[in-house]
Design a protein that fits this description.
This protein is α/β, with parallel strands linked by helices. Helix content is 42%, strand content 16%. The protein contains 14 helices and twelve strands.
Length: 391
């Protein structure tokens, strides 16, 4: 582990600001002036003296000593997929949470380019950052890159990444509850069609969340023989929505009205492209059941006559924030789980229509209680740092 003696940067400024506001820190705390003490314990006088103001324990910050001793804390958030609103919100959530804790946070999206993704992970190892959030590392090479990060003492939290990373010591793997996401969307499809429907399946192999969603899809097909898959399509790149739109438009020419009942889209980038194709072709009798949500998705769902009737999702901004909290706990030497799944919810078109105004990601909580809110892994010392920073 890297060890720094001086507590510089944003975290130091936050500590100093709180001490000044409370009027504490006029004398030495019981913790003395060294950087010693329990690595997993609270900073107490340690953090205060490092911040140059003394008495941090008296103001109740209780910043863990291991975190305080690190000095400037540099975080990288590296995501393989991109070009979609979900990615933008995930990165924003992680960055906002990290900066509120006083960290320097850099984000990067490889837009589906495996080479660029691996290069970014290698660069993070070379730059000797404190922690990395890895999103959608989906192959053995990604796991090897994460292993190298850990060998250098860099803390790692992953999101929607390959299961091989579970065997790397000290890594916490997070994911949306993909089984629940697929089940919510497909249960609504079965309910709306009575279990008898000809459908298009929009899905791409190779990504861990897609593999989990596909497993549920296969179970639903087996349990509902009246549901027949006519066509499937899937690609993951920066032009996913456009390519999906073109593919669905081509499919529509093969199947006249009445021959396709629904589309199951396992990613909102697929659903966006499908919705555009259906609207342009005047084929909105075909209904879309999707996964994931963003402002762009909600806008389409609320259009008059929109074919997108339901989507199952977890707030992507909240996902980013929770991943950052887990990383902060690791940096502080606190216990973290090996795995954590984020709870899903179903958003349907009828629910959105009941709102008095247009619903977006900020106001979705008005119709879905608790949406975008969680105190998971948010420790008291984190709340104190956020309050002190005004974020």
């Amino acid at each position: 582990m890297k060890s720094r003696v001086r507590f510089r940067g944003a975290l130091a400024l936050i500590l100093a600001a709180v001490l000044a506001v409370t009027g504490c820190g006029q004398g030495q705390s019981d913790g003395g002036n060294g950087a010693g003490g329990n690595a997993g314990g609270n900073a107490g006088g340690n953090a205060g003296s490092i911040a140059g103001n003394g008495g941090a324990s008296q103001v109740g910050l209780n910043v863990p000593a291991r975190l305080a001793e690190r000095g400037d804390i540099k975080i990288k958030v590296i995501r393989k997929i991109g070009g979609d609103d979900h990615t933008a919100q995930f990165l924003a959530g992680a960055k906002q949470e990290g900066e509120a804790l006083g960290f320097k946070v850099d984000t990067f999206s490889a837009n589906g380019d495996s080479v660029k993704f691996l290069e970014a992970l290698e660069q993070a190892a070379a730059e000797d950052v404190d922690g990395v959030i890895v999103s959608h590392g989906d192959d053995p090479a990604s796991a090897e890159a994460v292993k190298k990060l850990r060998e250098k003492g860099i803390e790692v939290v992953t999101f929607d990444s390959i299961g091989d990373m579970a065997g790397i010591g000290g890594v916490t793997m997070t994911a949306q509850d993909d089984q629940a996401l697929a089940r919510f969307a497909l249960d609504r499809l079965v309910q709306d069609t009575g279990g008898n429907a000809n459908i298009i399946y929009l899905w791409v192999d190779g990504f861990p969340p897609m593999v989990r969603r596909n497993a549920v899809y296969q179970e639903v097909l087996a349990a509902n023989p009246g549901i027949q898959e006519l066509e499937r399509f899937g690609v993951a790149n920066e032009n996913t929505s456009v390519e999906t739109q073109n593919a669905v438009a081509a499919m529509l020419t093969k199947y006249p009205k009445g021959e396709i009942d629904a589309i199951f889209a396992t990613w909102d980038a697929f659903a966006i492209g499908a919705a555009r194709a259906l609207i342009e072709a005047g084929r909105t009798e075909i209904k879309i059941y999707g996964i994931d949500v963003s402002n762009a998705d909600l806008q389409i769902m609320q259009q008059e006559g929109s074919p997108w009737v339901a989507t199952a999702a977890v707030d992507p901004k909240m996902i980013g924030a929770v991943n950052m909290r887990l990383l902060a706990k690791k940096l502080a030497g606190e216990e973290t789980p090996a795995e954590y799944n984020l709870e899903a919810a179903l958003i349907d078109q009828e629910m959105l229509k009941q709102s008095s105004g247009t619903v977006n990601m900020e106001t979705l909580a008005d119709i879905i209680p608790g949406w975008g809110q969680t105190d998971a892994f948010e420790e008291d010392w984190m709340k104190a740092l956020k309050e002190a920073s005004g974020k």
